[in-house]
RNase H type-1 domain-containing protein
Amino acid sequence: MQTVLLPSSICSEIDTLNRKFLWAVDMQSNKPHLVNWNDVCLPKKYGGMGLKSARDYNKALIAKLGWHMLSGSNKLWCQAFTYKYLHSNSFLNCNPTPSSSVTWRSILKCRDMLRLGIQWRVGSGTQIQLWHDVWAGNSKLLDVALSPIPHHLLDLPVAAIINNSKWDLEQLTGLLPDHILQTIAAIPLPIAGHLEDSIYWYNSSQGDFSVKSVIQLLQQSRLPDIPEVGEWAWIWQLCCPERVKLFVWLLKKERILTNSVRFARHMAPTPVCPRCEQSPETPLHLLRDCYYSRLVWDATNFLPGDFFQLDFAPWLRKNSSKSRMGPRASDSWSSIFLATIWYLWKSRNKLIFEEQRVSPLAIVQQASKLAWEIQLAFAAKATLISKAPRWVTAAGGLLRDHLGHWYHGFATNVGITTSFLAELWGCREGLKLAISLGVQQLILEMDSLLAVQQIQSRKVSAGAASVLLNDICLLLDSFSSCLVQHTLREGNYAADFMASIGHTIDLDTTFFPTPPTGISMILQSDCIGAMSLRY
């Protein structure tokens, strides 16, 4: 892979294995590949996934060897190849001989890739051909000339238009466009000492060669149109699990297998939506316009005013991207939106392939859990961007009455500590809140089995948790009756939601006399005893 050009059959076989892995296809099944492999291998900013095709990667690695030859590296193998094959010839212009090795022939075949990305840095200008080398812009001056170049000017070096460390462009006036002349005039020339001409890799900010930049050049050369900046990059900047990003990417490419697509591919007997059985199942119908999806969306606490009016592409981007929805509340909405469309898609697949119907309420519950995880991921990312320590923890909880209705809540930004200490910290804050509100009878539920066991044992250790455990034991004695018990995480979504708010506030505790936005559906699910599946 790094020293010789592999046969096309081997590269194709490697790509086939990669495609099967990407689309979860084994050797016996024949699942469809949703996106063309060439599109998958494009950079993310151009609508691909940034994967590498075996052929492009092989060529780029060989081109790296050519770059060492071109840049005059003093590596031993470069010296050997120079002595054996180049003699007095230029690397870019030499030809293979019958006795050339396989590696040398491979390097020469990849020289065109180097020509895509090399430029000359002007020093003295004596080694650079004025019209035939790339040194001003990304193309040869001969290719952008306004008229045929006079014969006596064709072989001039760049030094011919340099006079006392300044550009002398009079003889080029009328031969080149004005913007090219302005480009040349902006190229700095050395004014102190002698500086030799040298080549550099223009597709790098530092001028250094990289395999990644070669692959990008190859991919760009095959693109009919370069997408606008930001048209695709926003997908990979979303704060959500990678599987959800991939789903959003497929949605934007309109490659998910809705019934409309499956019918066109002869994979389904009808293009109609399996839920409403009235309209064709397009991505927009599936995720928004179907009556079933509307039931789910109506159950959320907040919808943008134009939610049901936008076309699919702007609807997807506006609601997915947190930067498009306002300040702090936008983060909550974008995570809810992404989690909801993900579970709408999963529930639809269960209906078609497993004949299982999922209620809208169950989707809201599952989406709330995933949204909470997304918000935690965003909080961790925010601390990383600001160069704060990663392990910032939060705690939260709520008080309910005997019917399960909201009574009071709190969220705490604990700081840098362990998750176990954060659990104890949240327990202490919750007990303090209950006492301040005059609560006498209490059932304390926590999803940390270790914390519950420590509290129930009433054994205060000498470790870091001793202060919190001692306070908790003293506070528990303030109630006329108090039962401490463990609950599964699936039964603790509301407290987890409050803890996620703790990551968005400053150090300290914030109290919530009324339910915060986004928790009402979780409370409703708990009140009616909705079933929650474990994954």
Summary: The chain has four domains: 8-116, 123-196, 233-377, 391-528. Residues 123-196 form one domain. The longest strand covers residues 406-416. Residues 328-353 form the longest helix (26 residues).
